[in-house]
Design a protein that fits this description.
Elements lengths: L7 H28 L5 E2 L1 H4 L1 E8 L8 H17 L6 E5 L4 E7 L9 H5 L8 E8 L7 E6 L2 E14 L3 E9 L2 E8 L1 H13 L4 E6 L2 E7 L8 E8 L1 H13 L6 E9 L7 H49 L2 E2 L1 H30 L4 H33 L3 H31 L21
Parallel strand pairs: 1-14
Antiparallel strand pairs: 2-4, 2-13, 3-4, 5-7, 5-10, 6-7, 8-9, 9-12, 10-11
């Protein structure tokens, strides 16, 4: 039978895939080397962080347990919006306070708790009110702050709604510049429609605590359940304010009454020890795969580098928090990748020993190993997904690394290893079945 001659692209596929993988690995390694500690945000267990106590800013207000629970939910949502996975938010109902611990930012150099607390955003109430122009110094006057500067003086005539009635907020751009587009829930839509109907020609203001951040004239009743906050916002400021509004409105104004730095719970050298252990384990795995499974093992080792670098790169780009359990998730997902490649390599070996041609054995090996690899990855991914949905704190870091690793393994590593093996099989020097684990069966005497 005459075999079809391989095209130049089929032979070059191996080098193209390897070049892409090495580029990703080099890009990740260069980023880690140049940015060092600022490349990624590490958890409290690795780098330490900030501990802060939040209480009502008004000593005359004693928040109820329900209000404390609501405020706790808002703070957790703000931490989620900043991808701060390693944190603890607990209630001190006896002292009517909320205790928060979260890790330093990736690029933190000053380790200033006061500056770090600002990352949580303003702990203020968003309110909508009917306002009128006032005189500077007049009693009850509030300032309109535009782009950090004084924009006028107004009197609050009537406060009619708070930020809890905002269903969605997002940054947008109109002719006047960047704005925050607001969508109200059903109750908020009705309230806003009634107020704007009663105050056509009057001024509606939006306040963050006692600071007026936006004022607009009601030209007609707004009944569609939508409005926008205008002002001299930059794109980043509009996005930040929209995020804070989406996080929810605090039921009472809060301030940090006590704050301090938290030392790394696992010690300053825990990260270096774990990384060294992981690197040694990876080298041993690669050596074993190359010696025992030969060419399929060598190809699998290249894809393991892709999986490892890909996980670190994705965590960096998404700004996620990496904890020691997260590193354990990376190691576990690498183990899943090794299992998948071992199953495939064994299937290829079996197909060759059964008499199939090399190219047919590679195709059949991947095809017949698919169900086992798929089941293994899907069940593990399901665990990671459940942990992501139900977990909190450092458990989320483990869930993210595990799930990302499984997706990279199943979505990229297996596909790339198949492309590389098929490409190598077209070279005469690599077409010997012995490179793929074939063992000649001795004939019975």
């Amino acid at each position: 039978m005459r075999h079809k001659k391989a095209s130049i692209w089929q032979k070059l596929t191996f080098f193209i895939v390897v070049a892409i993988i090495l580029a990703i690995v080099a890009y990740t390694a260069f980023g880690i080397y140049t940015e060092r500690n600022s490349y990624m945000r590490f958890g409290i267990d690795i780098k330490g962080g900030v501990s802060a106590t939040f209480q009502s800013a008004d000593e005359t207000i004693v928040p109820t347990d329900d209000q404390l629970e609501s405020a706790k939910t808002v703070i957790e949502q703000r931490l989620d919006n900043n991808n701060i996975l390693d944190r603890t938010v607990t209630l001190d109902k006896e002292n009517h306070a909320i205790l928060v611990e979260f890790p330093w930012q990736a690029n933190e150099t000053e380790f200033d708790p006061v500056a770090a607390i600002k990352e949580l955003g303003e702990t203020a109430q968003l309110t909508f009110a009917v306002v009128s122009e006032g005189e500077h110094g007049e009693e009850g006057v509030v300032e309109l702050i535009v782009d950090g500067e004084h924009g006028g003086d107004y009197i609050i005539e009537e406060t009619f709604m708070d930020g809890s009635r905002v269903a969605k907020a997002e940054a947008g751009y109109l002719d006047s510049g960047y704005v925050i587009l607001l969508q109200f829930d059903s109750e908020g839509t009705t309230t806003f429609a009634n107020e704007t109907s009663d105050h056509v020609g009057d001024l509606i203001g939006i306040l963050m605590d006692d600071t007026l951040i936006s004022v607009a004239t009601v030209e007609e009743a707004i009944t569609g359940g939508e409005a926008y906050i205008s002002g001299s916002f930059t794109a980043a400021e509009a996005k930040s304010l929209a995020s804070k509004i989406n996080s929810g409105a605090l039921p009472f104004t809060m301030e940090s009454t006590n704050y301090s730095s938290v030392s790394a719970t696992m010690g300053a050298h825990a990260l270096n020890v774990m990384l060294l252990a992981g690197l040694i384990a990876l080298c041993i795995i690669i050596l074993f795969m190359c010696c025992y499974y030969r060419l399929p093992g060598f190809v699998a080792s290249i894809t393991l580098l892709l999986q490892t670098a890909g996980q670190l790169l994705i965590f960096h780009l998404m700004g996620l928090t990496l904890t020691l359990p997260g590193i354990a998730g990376i190691i576990l997902s690498i183990g899943m990748g090794v299992d998948s490649n071992i199953i495939i390599a064994e299937r290829i070996k079996e197909e060759i020993n059964s008499g199939k041609t090399l190219k047919g054995a590679i195709t059949a090996g991947y095809s017949r190993a698919f169900s086992a690899v798929f089941d293994c990855n899907v069940t593990t991914a399901a665990v990671g997904l459940l942990l992501m949905i139900l977990g909190t704190g450092s458990m989320l870091s483990f869930a993210y690394t595990l799930l990302i690793g499984i997706l990279l393994n199943f979505g990229l590593s297996i596909i790339s290893s198949k492309l590389m093996l098929q490409s190598l099989s077209y070279y005469k020097v690599f077409s010997n079945p012995k490179f793929y684990g074939y063992k000649k069966v001795k004939e019975a005497e």
